[in-house]
Specification:
Blueprint: H1 8-16, H2 29-44, H3 46-58, H4 68-77, H5 91-110, H6 118-148, H7 150-154, H8 164-188, E1 194-196, E2 199-202, E3 205-208, H9 216-233, H10 237-245, H11 247-269, H12 277-281, H13 283-323
Helix pairs in contact: 2-6, 3-6, 5-6, 8-11, 9-10, 9-11, 9-13, 11-13
Amino acid sequence: MEKTNTPAEPIIETRLAGAGGGATFWSDRRLIGFASYVALLTLVFVVPLTALVRHALKEDLHSHILLIPVVSLYLAGLKRDSLPRERRGSTVFAVFFALAAAAVFFVPGLAGAGEWSHNDRLSQTTAAYVLLLVAGAFQFLGATWLRMLAFPFTFLVFMIPMPDAMIVGLEEFLMLRSAELSYLFFQWAGTPVFRTGQVLELPGIVLEVAQECSGIRSTVVLFITSLIAAYLFLSSSLHRGLLVALVIPLGIIRNASRVLTIGLLCVHMGPHMIDSWVHHRGGPLFFGASLVPLFLLATWFRYRENKAAGAKKDGDSSLQEGQHP
């Protein structure tokens, strides 16, 4: 009897060629090794990571931390079909990041850095955890994979709570710049105003751009959003950089617009408007408004890139037709 070919072998080959350029998770020893390493590393850091979760649930500024690993894993998963099959562990880079983690964890204590706040201590331990995670990725997955997964792994930096000094510096910058721009807005609106630092004197009321008005949380969220949007929807490094660079000016304009709105309400309707919903609960409204120019700019950049890609494709087609009459 003549033996007939069955499609079993091609089906097996197709399945093995699906994930990571040539192997499923359960047949890839390096992926299993990396997953086991991450599980063990997380177990070692379980106490500070648990404290990090509690901190993120309590502090609005760091509430995004809980979503960062999920987003990073999703972004890495988008690349799974384009990852090469062949790879080697990069011991040199693994050792470099492991030493960096050790320096972050031990050097401040050896140097007598003094008593740290709870937030700064979490920043230190989380930074060490992320660096060790990257070290393991280089050892198990290799530099080739890490080059292609650079953004998802770099994105993990947002797991690290901002140190106190960074928070204070960013808040002071946003408060001062927002007060300066608010002063210009009031002048353009024809409202008498006198500014002393972050204090704005208006007819009938004095406003101060205080710490609560810095908009630091909205600015951080907008910055992270712009990074993800630039990575997913844009291919030009210039367009990506411009989109992300727009975030800080947008944050300042948003804060100044909110101060202007509250100030004009107080001047024209009465000082009691300082306790209106615009002041206490208007943040999401102004944040949503700041997303509009970001979305429009991203859409325009995407349109330009698609148009350029289409023109290049038409040019290549014309060239091929000219070569083959």
